[in-house]
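Dig into this one:

. . .
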Amino acid sequence: MAFHYMFLLTIFLLLPLSTIAQSYKNVSLGSTLTTSDVTKFWPSPSGDFAFGFQRSGNGSSGFLLAIWFNKLKEKTIVWSANRNNIAPEGSKVELSVDGRLVLTDPNGQETWARDTANAGPAYGAMLDTGNFVLATSSSGILWQSFDEPTDTILPGQVLNQRSRLVSSFSSTNASSGRFELFLDGELALHTIKYPIDVTNSAYWSTVTGGSGNQVRFNQLGIYLHAANGTLLTLISSSNETNSTASQFYQRAILEYDGVFRHYVYPKRSSSGRPMAWSTLHSIPDNICLLLPQNLQREWVACGLNSLCSMGTDRRPRCDCPIKYIFNDPKDKLGSCRRNFPEQDCKVESRGAEAFTMHEMLSTNWFGGDFEYYADVTEDWCKQSCLNDCYCVAAVHHPGKECWKKRYPLLNGRTDPEEASKTFLKITKDNSTVGPTTTTTTNTTPRSQAGEKRKNQSSVIISVSVLLGSLVFTLMLLALLYVFKLKGRYPKKFSAYQAVPGVNIRSFSYNELEEATNGFEEELGTGAFSTVYKAILNDENGKIVAVKKLHKTVTEGEQGFLAEVNSISRTNHKNLVQLLGFCNEGQHRLLVYEHMEAGSLADLLFKDSRLSWSQRVQVAIDTAKGLCYLHEECSNQIIHCDIKPQNVLLDENLTAKIADFGMAKLLRKDQTRTTTKIRGTRGYVAPEWFRNMPITVKVDVYSFGILLLELICCRKSYKQDVANENEMILAEWACDCYRRKELHLLVGDDEEAIEDIERFEKLLMVAIWCIQENPALRPSMKEVILTLEGSVEVSIPPDPFSFIRFV
């Protein structure tokens, strides 16, 4: 039997995968598929697989351009082209007559394509292996889906060096998630520092001395080979199906929970297995037991403050401890947060009487320890944490060891083999944190008199409300009468002039073309606009900046004017002032005050950089501008794209925020970096990548990154560094803060060195701003108070477990 198995294995390994015979069912040039009829697709010859559109998730209105098992009731998807850019209703895929495979949205805009036109493709084909190919007339493959896997590999597929699989975000969300299978000498599983596409250290890998070169999947299993073809290790075997492997569909997938699973599905009910996908192997077997190398900021299976445990189905599940709730109820592998007020370290009593310690058996959190004690009892460990306002949990080991932990908690797990016991600090059931309000129910004469006065007050209030309602009704009738009369007379002003109460001017296109000298001197350009220098033809010859928008949300005049009106009503010294606009035909232009010194990006990262005191003032100016947008405008404005390029400086180096309100003026697809995301990568808050409400706290996160750039005088991401740990500024800065190595961040800035206490304070503010949980981030008002020194900064949590998310 063993000889028979090895003989079959040898035959499979010797066959070049590209030469295994296939019966092509051609897709001719010019063929199309649309989302309007998902019953139409391009099938493989046997009908086992199909290429076309599938709904992207439960109840979703969008579509994936995908390949799936077509004979199965589940229509299991094995590949998709647009997992991070879901196609809306009305989208179309076409194998064009010039040989391009193109996905377009309802407006005809190209959203995904594979271009083989210059190679002369003759047709496309869905193969019985689950591989979609573009081929020449002689059947030479020009492009194939097998070369661009998403989260799944199939028998007949090969993973070469630097190939990767990326998990989906959840069981119903196909977008790129938190885990990666990567081949680079070793085949390894990594967590991803979501939303940045950078991996953490591996939590599982093969041990082949780095000689792994190719992963091959055939009917007998999944194997890792060296460059010379030598078999190095067996990843997963299909021999449980004995000699009937061909009677099963197979797939191997890196699932959203970080486990790489090898599945089989019987092609016929007579095989003895249930007609469903069943697991042959899971790698790793218990992901809850795995720990990252960096226990201070990384984790593997579950998010912050969460506990991992293996269910009866051998799948990891993440649960929030008592009195904690999920940040995002839809993200069951995500982070948890306290559902009660934290202990206040600023008051002398610390409020310890309002808290108790909840005992949790066979439970531990790994990492985030800030104090350790040996040879102490459980009661001493528990009481020490209860009295310490910075302690949120204490773990006691049978060896009389005690670890005190800060918020947030990392790498939690509950396992029968875990010997440790955790004491979690929570509020008492009937207690309040902070000042309490006492109510009385006695019926003394004094209280009766109080009740009488209360009743008299109620009568007075009721009468006042009645009179107020009557006055309001009369005023409303009067306004309706005025508006009725107003409609009988022609309007005095045109739409261009109708921005009442605001000193803003309407320009014709010819005026601005003349002022810019035919749009000659370009000050800057972006994805959605170009800015030109202009000199107005007035008595002062004022220099202005003219922003020419490429496209706007509505081509209609009134929609544009409404947004211009909203922006023009802002008035703050730390916002770039809108002076005028042009709304003529298809032309949409905005006229701003000219900022003589240019953008912060121009002055921050060059040799002639701003001084330390100037950079601190820029931070305060920017914070004040954001605070105005968030809290003081008549209509709250979320900027959505705070970065050095959008902070401009005048001749006095006063910082002013530009492009506020632009998110409403631009087409939705013009400020996206990925689907539904606005902003610039590196400055984008984690909640953009999750199904969470977008609030002003996204601007606070972006400000935090900007503040780090200001105090360290370097970009948020830099490749040419001596140590790869310094590439991502936010991570490096937090490492330096934790290790008390601020001198590495300050460098040779003598002024900052002399003001190192303030440098540390600003660094702490930045760390608070970039917390994963938006609720932990301060408001911009609080940021201003701390930057100006009016309020002390509390010690921030170690934030760098959050980057993994979405």
Remarks:
- Residues 445-486 form the longest helix (42 residues).
